[in-house]
Amino acid sequence: MNNDSNKSVEQCNSIAADRVQGSFDEDLVTCSICHMILWKPVACKTCENSFCSDCINQWQQKQPNKCPFTCHYEERKCIGAILKVLSRLQINCCYMQNGCSVAVPYEGLEKHEQQCDYQFKKCEGCQRELLLKDLAQHQELCDQIDLKCSTCETLFKRKDMKNHKEVQCLKQQLQQQKNQVQELKLEFKQEIQQLKETMEQKLKNQQDTIDQLHVKNEEMQEECLNVIKKQIQLHMMQETFDSIYSNTLKIEEHGLVVVLIDKREHSEVRGRNSYSSGINCIKFQIEKMLNNEWISFGVLSQSTPMASTSFSSPSFYGWGQCTTQTFLNGSNQNGYAGYDGDIKENDLIELIINCETNNIKLINHRSTKRYEIPIDASKCPFPWKLSVNLVNIDDRVRIVR
Ligand SMILES: [Zn+2]
Ligand SMILES: [Zn+2]
Ligand SMILES: [Zn+2]
Ligand SMILES: [Zn+2]
Ligand SMILES: [Zn+2]
């Protein structure tokens, strides 16, 4: 055995043989390392010698896999005969010198010693060592013990209780109230700040709304003004017949009526207005049309010269009453867009000249039929003119207001 390593073994739970009551086989249950009664023993598989588990663990840390008896060490359970002897031992409590007089069976020793009333414990207040059995009573009276005030919840030593109740506690309460007031002030300040921000935001929103309404109002005023302007313009733009190709035609009633008087031949009459913008509406009634034989109407470019057969003039777009003639740039495309030529004497015709989307519309109030022709402004440059063509004597057209 190595004496040096033996000395270094910690004898934590060491039980000297003289603590055991009665006679027993001391050699059988003595640890070969610490020479005390075996504690939580294990054995060497090779030589079957037993050791306290703490003792052999510490030994193994220094000499791994070596048994104190020089053989190869491998752990096994302690042999049953030894455990049996150990279990029969009655052992004096380690706190016997403090006054504990009980002898405890080997198995119950650890638990007893953990709870034994005769062990020393430190007082939490004065830090003096006292027997566990006296500690509770001592701490009830020890003037170094910390107490918690039920009023202000601060800790003070028992010896300072009088001072605390009479002075410190009041101070403490005052301080706590001060802190509370401070917290409330802060909270109040934050609330005020929030309120202020909310109000400012609301005010700003209202101002925005007012600004928007102001803008809208101005827009509406301008829109109204435009409508009024357009109405004035429309009034001024009211169409009349203005010029004729030949004296076969006669303009009557200050331009409201055109009539063919002389002989049967095609002749053109134009309106006074020039159309370059907006949507313009002209209504006319075919008061007389012999045998429902012929009329043509539409628009053409102002620069196009007057002609007898104005419907075939370049730039003319419009409709004719002879089968289903539809003219695009002076060229006839029969039945264009489904046009059926259903135009008769006494019909009230509405011609809508749209200079914004470049087209003309025909609405026949009797048949309620509608037709539309797109105008290629490169072939029919602005401004446009109303162009009507008559052929038979007494045929007569009236602009209706
Ligand atoms: Zn031992
Ligand atoms: Zn061994
Ligand atoms: Zn005890
Ligand atoms: Zn104390
Ligand atoms: Zn207090």
From TrEMBL:
Classification via PROSITE patterns: ZF_RING_2
UniProt keyword terms in alphabetical order: Coiled coil, Metal-binding, Zinc, Zinc-finger
InterPro entries, per the entry: B30.2/SPRY_sf, ConA-like_dom_sf, Znf_RING, Znf_RING/FYVE/PHD
Residues covered by the RING-type domain: 31-68
Statement: the UniProt record of this protein carries the keyword Cell membrane: no
Coiled-coil stretches: 164-230
Sample GO molecular function, one term: zinc ion binding
Name assigned to this protein: RING-type domain-containing protein
